[in-house]
Every structure is written in structure tokens, then in C-alpha cells.
Amino acid sequence: MSIRALRTLHAIARHGSFGAAGAAVGLTQSAVSLQVKSLEAEFGAQLFDRSRRLPVLTEAGKIVLEKSAEVLALYDQIGAALSDEQSLAGRLKLGAIQTALARELPDALAILNRQHPRARVHVTAGMSAELSLQVANGELDAAIATEPVRPHPPDLVATPLYQDRFWIVAPAGQGHRTAEDLLQSYPFIRFDRASWAGRMIDKRLREMRLDLHEEMVLDSQRVILTMVQKGLGVAIVPMSEAERGELDLTCVPFGAPQMSRWIVLLERQSHTGGRLGAELVRIIRDVTGGAQI
């Protein structure tokens, strides 16, 4: 039995499928299946009911999930328990875009709290453009945002965390249609140009010179996806592989090659290198399987 296999078990329970869990922990779906089989052999019990479309925990699986949470919590405390010097202290005023708040950041903050209980992170939500101004003005110590696009405050340093790709999302069952056909056949739901992601999308669309029938302009990716699910149009949004795998929507790559963006930690050039910020970068990269230090 390995700690990594137990973490994979929890990722499956959290994300709902072997594929999405693999994307979250940096493994292929087949590697996830092998880890589950090793746990089932170890405990002599079937942990998932595989007869359904998505795996469902059996009663034995629920017991292993509950008890292993205690094991993982104890394991995560070992490093901090070895020496008080390993435990960071202090406060970090952090901004974050909505997509990070909805997925990657909660897991990272939970790990940070367990490993460094004396550290305090105060979180503010916002769009990348406004968060960058708050970092530049000293209102925030750092922000998790899209990699800066012009115009942006000049005195910023961006540390890569993980990468998203851009997808055309449409109602389910439209995977046989081309990107251009989808964009011109449905009402277009636009990502607000005030956001950096919106600016990136707008620049590429202008290069494509498509005749779009714009119906809505929204600044929340979650709301945009809900509108598409209701059949109200198509949209272009940045998503991780794990998030895309959870959607019951048609997802077609946007751009050739497919457009992507980096999610980064923004700091002022004159205020970088703090141990707490560096530790948060390390944890987020571990959670997402993103850029390596």
C-alpha cells in the first residue's frame, strides 16, 4: 500500500471518475486503475462498483476512504512535526481568479494549513486585470491569475503554476461539427473582454474573421457553462483536462494549434521570494501536476 495510491483514491472520490482523478494527480487513467487494483488486492475487497458509467464507491470503499483520510492527515503532519523550524508562519494576502477558487486553490490551502498551521492566507476573489493592479499597488501580496496580457502593470513577476487549454463548448452531441461551424451556427456567449482570458479569446477571433451572433457577455466561467448547458449558445472558455472531463458538453479545441494559457502567481518585482509564497507555489504545482520547480 502506498501513500500515493491512497491520494489517488481520494482524487477519484473528489472528481468522480478515473480519468478526471488521473488528470488531477498527474497519472494516466490506466495508472489510476492499477493503483486501485493494488489497493483492492491489499485490502481483499472491491472498492468501486464498475458496472455503472462512473465508478461508485462500495461500502468497503467508503470505509477505506474514511480511514485513509486519517492516515493521510497524519502523514502530512510528519514534516512539520520533525522540527518547528520547518513550519512557516506569517500572513499572505492572496488574490485569485474564480476558476482557481473553484478547483485548485481549496485543495492547496488545505494542505498548506495542515503542514504550516501558523501560516495565514487571506483570500480575495477577482479578475486577473484587477488583481494585478491590487498586487502592483501593494493591496495584495500576490495573486493567482492568468499570465499577464497587455496592458498590465509593469512591475510584476509571474511564476508559472499550471496550464489550461481553450475549448469551444457547445450543447452535447455536436462533436461531429467543426469549430467554425459551431461558432457561426449558435448564438455566441462571450467571455468579458475586461478579463485577460476574454482579451486572448477576442484577439484570436478577430484573426479568424468569423461572423458571430453575439447574445451575451459574461465574466463568470461557471455561469457561461450553465448557459451553454441550457442550450442558449456556444462559448469559448479555458479549462483543465480534469474540468473538461466532468462536463456533459461538446468540447472542441479552439485554435490551431490549440490556444492555451498559463495560470501564474503574480508578485511585485520588489517583493518576491517570500517563503510562504514559494511554499504555496510548490503545493499548487503538486496538486495540479503543473510546472516543476
From TrEMBL:
Record key words, sorted: DNA-binding, Transcription, Transcription regulation
Domain HTH lysR-type, residue spans: 1-58
PROSITE patterns: HTH_LYSR (PS50931)
Claim: Kinase is one of the keywords in the record: no
Molecular function per GO: DNA-binding transcription factor activity; transcription cis-regulatory region binding
Family annotation (CDD domains): PBP2_LTTR_like_2
Pfam family, one: HTH_1
InterPro entries xrefs: LysR_HTH_N (IPR000847), LysR_subst-bd (IPR005119), WH-like_DNA-bd_sf (IPR036388), WH_DNA-bd_sf (IPR036390)
Top-level taxon of the source organism: Bacteria
Family: Belongs to the LysR transcriptional regulatory family.
PANTHER family: HTH-TYPE TRANSCRIPTIONAL REGULATOR (PTHR30126), LYSR FAMILY TRANSCRIPTIONAL REGULATOR (PTHR30126:SF94)
Listed name of the protein: LysR family transcriptional regulator
